[in-house]
Amino acid sequence: MTRRRHAPWTVLDSREVFSAPPYISVQTQRVRLPDGRQVHDFHRIVMPDYALVFPELPDGRLIVLRQYKHGVGDVSLTFPAGTLDPGEDPLAAAKRELKEETGYEAASWRYYGRYVTHANAFSNAAHLYTAAGCRKAAEPDSGDLEEMELLLMTRPELFEAARRGEFKLTSQIGMLALATHPVLAETMGREA
Amino acid sequence: MTRRRHAPWTVLDSREVFSAPPYISVQTQRVRLPDGRQVHDFHRIVMPDYALVFPELPDGRLIVLRQYKHGVGDVSLTFPAGTLDPGEDPLAAAKRELKEETGYEAASWRYYGRYVTHANAFSNAAHLYTAAGCRKAAEPDSGDLEEMELLLMTRPELFEAARRGEFKLTSQIGMLALATHPVLAETMGREA
Question: ∠ CA(A145), CA(A158), CA(A129), 5° rounding?
Fold first, then answer.
C-alpha cells in the first residue's frame, strides 16, 4: 500500500470559538494526519488578507511610512499596505492603499505572489507588489487610526534603516529584501 | 501644546476572549489613541514566538525542508523553524530546531533580529538566524506532526524554486531574500 507523499491533512470538523467580523475568526479543528493520527485541537485564525506595496518614484527613491503599529507596540518603518475589502481584487486593494496612504499612483505594477503568515494557524495572507513610476496624484487620506509620516528614501538609506532595526515586521523586512534582491526581484515578479 | 510624534497607544483594558495555552490567546483591548479617540474592540492574538534558520553547508548548499503545512493547506518549501519553549532563549531554540528537524549542527550563527508577524494584532514574532558550517550530527527527530523531506539545494536552485512559487510563507520567502541579499545579509546580521 502506498500513500501520497506530503498528503494534506483532513479536517474532520471545525468549530468557531471566537468571531469578530470582519476582523478575526478563530476556529478549533479536529484533523486527521496522513498516518491516521487525529489531532483534536488544531487552531486556525483567519484575518483578512492584505496587499503590501514597494512603491518606487521615477528617480529611484521609495515611498516609506513611519508610524506606530499597535501589533508591534512601537514605531516602525513600513511600506504602504492594507487589508482587502470583502471580495476585492488584491491588485485593486494595492492601488487603493497606495493612493489612500500616500496620495501616489503608479505607472506599472508587478506581482510577487501570495504568502501565508502563519505556517500552522494561517492567520492571513500577504499579496506582494512592486509599483514603479509613482507620481503624486492627491493628498493622502488613509482613514486609518495611525498618524503616518511619509518619507522618500533611496535604497542605501533603506538598507541603513534596516541595519539600524527600523523595520520591525516580518512582511516588511521581507518585502524590502525581495524587491531589492538582484535575482529574485527580476525572476519572481510578473506584470500585474 | 505639543504631542510626541508617533506616540504609542494606551491600552485602557484588555479582556481575554479565547485561550488555549500554550498555543494561542486572543484578547480584546480597549485602546486610547494619541488624539484622544478610543477604540473598543482592538483584537490582539498571541502565539509563541519562533526561530527560523537559514542553514548553510560548508559547500554552500542550503538545508531545506519540503512539507505539508496546514496553515497553508498545501506543500511548501521551508527552512528549519519552530516555536520557542516557554522561557527558552531564541538562539537555543534555533539550535534545537535545526538539530531536531535536520540532524545538523552549525559552526557559527548570525542573528538578523526579531520581527512581528501582524502589524495590528501581533500574532507572534520571528527570530531570524543564519547558520554556517552545518554538519550532520544525528538523525532528524523533530517530533512534529508533519512528514519532512530534507533537501540540500544550491542558491540558484532555491531561486528557481522561489520563481516557481514553491515558498508559500511570508517569513520563509523573506528569510531567503534576506539571507542571500548582497547588502542586507552582510550589514544586518551580527554574530550570535
Answer: 65
Q: What is the DSSP string of A149-176?
A: EEEEE-HHHHHHHHHTT---BHHHHHHH
**∠ at Cα B24 (B23, B29), nearest 5°?**
160
Q: Which residues make Cβ contacts (< 8 Å) with residue A37, sequence separation at least 6?
A: B145
Ramachandran quadrant class, A143 (left: phi over 0; alpha: psi -120 to 50; beta: rest): left
Taking an 8 Å cut-off on Cβ atoms, the answer to whether B124 and A118 are in contact is yes
DSSP states of B129-151 as a string? EEEES-EE-S------SS--EEE
Q: Which residues partner with B75 through β-bridges? A: B68
State the alpha helices, DSSP H only, in A57-144: 90-102
Quote the CA–CA distance of A54 and A43 in Å, as a whole number: 32
- For residue A49, the chain B residue with the least C-alpha distance is B118
Question: Is 0.90 exceeded by the ipTM?
Answer: yes
Chain B nearest C-alpha distance from A146 (Å): 8
Q: Which CATH architecture has domain B50-191?
A: Alpha-Beta Complex (3.90)
Chain A positions touching B82 (Cβ under 8 A) are none
A contacts of B145 (beta carbons < 8 Å): 33, 37, 39
Give the minimum alpha-carbon distance from A8 to chain B in angstroms, rounded to a whole number. Answer: 6
What is the pTM (predicted TM-score) of this model? 0.96
CA dist., res. B54 & res. B61, Å (int) = 11
Cα–Cα distance, A28 to A22 (Å, whole number)? 18
Which DSSP state fits B174?
H
- Distance CA(B56)–CA(A101), nearest Å, equals 40
- Report residue A62 as a C-alpha cell: 521609495
Tell me: the pLDDT tens digits for B120-177?
A: 999 999 999 999 999 999 999 888 888 899 999 999 999 999 999 999 999 999 999 9
User: Residue A71 is nearest to which of B35, B116, B173, comparing CB atoms?
Assistant: B116
